[in-house]
Every structure is written in C-alpha cells, then in structure tokens.
Design goal:
This protein is mostly beta strands. 10% of the residues lie in helices and 48% in strands. Keywords: Membrane, Transmembrane, Transmembrane helix.
C-alpha cells in the first residue's frame, strides 16, 4: 500500500472518530440541564409561542424568586409600562410595553405567566380597579396619538371598549364600574362620566381650562388638575359625580399630586417659576399644609395602606440645575434615589434603603408591605426591594 493511501485512510478514520465524539457530546448535553447548550440558550424572553419570561442573570441564576436572599431583586428584565398587585394579592401584574402583553409573577419574582390573550402594542400606562378585574390602558397609535382602552378581564378572556379619539385624559373608578374622560371643546374641555362599558354617558363639567388631568380616588369623588410645567401654573380641584366642584390648590408651578387611598389627604410637590427650589408638602381637605423634610417629586412616592399618614418616597441624592419637573419628564436628566419612610403627621423621616443606582417611579407596596415595587425610569425594568419588618 502506498504512503499516500495510508494517509487518506488514517484521515478518514480520524474524521469518523471526531463525528462520533461530537455526537456523544451532544447527547450528553441534552441530558445535562446545566450543559453548554442549555447555558448558551438559557434566559431571555419567550415570544408569543411560549408563556414564560425567565429572569436570569449572566450566571444563569434566577433573579428574585422564593430562593432570593437579596434585599433587591428584578421582577421583569424587559420594559414595563405599568404594574400592580394582583387581585388575589399573591402576585404582581405588569404590562410589558415592548410586546403589549399582561403578565403575572409571584411577589418574590421568578417566571412570569401571560394572563391575557389580548395584545396592546405601545402600552405606556395602566390604571386598575381595586379588584384588578378592570383596567384603563393608555397606548400610542402609529400617528403618535394617545388612545384609551377600558378592559375587563374574565379568566384569560379580555373584553373592552376604546374611548373616542377626541379623548385626551381618562380615569377609572376604584370599583371599576365607571369611567371619566375629558374631550376638547373649543378652547376648553368637557368631562364625561360613563359606565365602564362606555354606555350611560353624562357630561358633568365644562371647563374653560384645557389640558385637564383626571384622577378617580373614591367611588364618588374625582380630582382634576391642569397639566403641570415648570413654566406655567397648575390648579387642583375636586369634582363629585353629581358635578359639584371645590378648589383645593391655587395656581402653583411644577405641581405634582398624589392622593392617599381614602382621598382624605394628598402629597403635592411644587417649584418656583422656572423649575427651581423643589419642595414636597402634605395637605388635607381642610386646607391644612405641612412641608415635609424631603426634596422630591410627589410621583416618586407611595402611600402606605397599613400605616396611617405614612409615605415611602424616592428622594434624589442630587438635583439637577435644569428646570423641574420638565427636564426629568423629558429624560434630559435622571436621578439616583435613596428610599425614605416619612410620617406625614409628624414630619419624621427615616432612610430605608440607599444602595442603588435607580431613578424610581410607579411605586407600589405588597399587601403586607414587606416589599416595595418600582419601575426604574432609566430602562423601565421592574424591581422590588424587601422592607425591614
């Protein structure tokens, strides 16, 4: 046999052995859940063919979940438009703005299950009824116009109505039975109350002021505010379902408002003209006001349901010299926050947590208030921090 033929035979045998070895490795990899292939494709977001979102870090460990021992954990690694505690109190509901789906996960994070068969692209916000069976969802159409969708969740079935195109503000009653929305009429606005099915419409207020924002805090009382800016004053007033109004705050620049769950008191933040000297106050419906020892925006706070008069607020470590809140809303500036517990009756403030690099918004508490959830404004991811008992 020639030397050339021997080389060919040896090379052929080597190739066969290599193929056999690779096949064996692949078979072993399928049996080994922590093998190379599984690690290569682990984590990530399951597209509409699947049901789960796996929240894993670079080492393949689940972020959050029942085994998490960290004071801080991620709930969703994708952008979240809005989140809340589920109706049964044992989980978190959240809308992913990138895919338009509603998901539920445990209070301690982990895999999230899709709970609605409806896809709403470009979701930017949602407001839920107390029982979480109805939601007012805000989304953006292709022409960049805001639209409002009232949704009723029945198991995995979702039914709903889209509000008129002329609607520029809308809110949902706490019991989910009614809605209120504002439509432009000339240079002013008309406020309409209707059932959450869109029927039984009734005009309850015409205002010469445009750009009204609506909040429905108790079943029979709404609150209206003109749109805020560092360069224009806003006012706040209440509106009963029968149409009676009462002014609560005279014009203030940079006005932000956050009502307590019972509507009996509210936080408000304001600035001097031009967005300077940010300050936070608490007020009640008896015209009593107290300046609080925290320099932050009211929308970076959440009221406690278990501790009367207590709020948790994300307080920026350093404020920008640019006008607030406009420069923060636009994303021109962002903050690094510390988390504080504030007793609005005494003014006492205690730092809860300061080990983070988050710009905290859309905060809410678990039923036992052992977890505080928030969206990081920098990337819209959803997080939770465990509160000391």
């Amino acid at each position: 046999m020639s030397r050339k033929k021997k080389i060919i035979i040896i090379a052929s045998m080597g190739a066969v052995l290599l193929i056999i070895a690779l096949a064996a490795l692949l078979l072993l990899g399928r049996e080994n859940k922590d093998g190379f292939l599984d690690n290569l494709f682990s984590g990530g977001f399951s597209l509409p063919g699947g049901k789960d979102i796996d929240l894993e870090d670079d080492d393949g460990a689940v972020t959050g979940g029942a085994e998490s021992r960290s004071a801080l954990f991620m709930v969703s690694d994708g952008p979240v438009a809005a989140a809340t505690i589920s109706g049964d109190g044992d989980g978190v509901l959240f809308y992913r703005s990138d895919v338009g789906h509603l998901y539920k996960t445990a209070l301690t994070g982990g895999a999230a299950e899709r709970v609605s068969n409806l896809t709403i692209p470009s979701t930017i916000n949602a407001e839920w009824s107390t029982e979480k069976e109805t939601a007012m969802v805000t989304f953006i159409e292709e022409n960049r116009a805001l639209r409002y969708f009232v949704l009723h969740y029945v198991g995995t079935t979702t039914e709903g109505v889209v509000l008129p195109k002329e609607t520029y503000a809308a809110t949902l009653s706490p019991n989910g039975e009614n809605i209120a929305y504002a439509v432009a009429v000339g240079d002013g606005a008309s406020v309409v109350i209707a059932s959450s099915s869109g029927k039984e419409q009734k005009n309850v207020l015409f205002s010469e002021l445009a750009d009204i924002e609506l909040s429905w805090i108790t079943d029979d009382l709404l609150f209206l505010k003109t749109r805020s800016s560092a360069f224009a004053p806003s006012i706040l007033w209440s509106l009963s379902v029968s149409g009676k109004t009462q002014t609560l705050l005279t014009p203030k620049e940079g006005l932000g408002v956050l009502f307590s769950p019972d509507g009996g008191r509210f936080l408000y933040s304001e600035t001097l003209r031009g967005g300077r000297d940010l300050a936070l106050y608490v007020a009640n419906n008896n015209d009593e006001y107290l300046k609080l020892p925290a320099t932050t925006l009211s929308e970076k706070c959440v009221w406690s349901n278990k501790q009367t008069g207590v709020v948790f607020c994300a307080v920026p470590q350093k404020l920008s010299g640019l006008p607030l809140p406009d420069s923060w809303w636009s994303g021109e500036v962002s903050f690094i926050d510390d988390l504080w517990r504030i007793d609005t009756e005494t003014g006492e403030a205690t730092m809860v947590w300061d080990q983070n690099d988050f710009d905290m918004v859309k905060m809410f508490l678990s039923p036992e208030e052992d977890y505080l959830f928030f969206v990081n404004k920098k990337d819209s991811t959803l997080w939770a921090v465990r509160l000391a008992s």
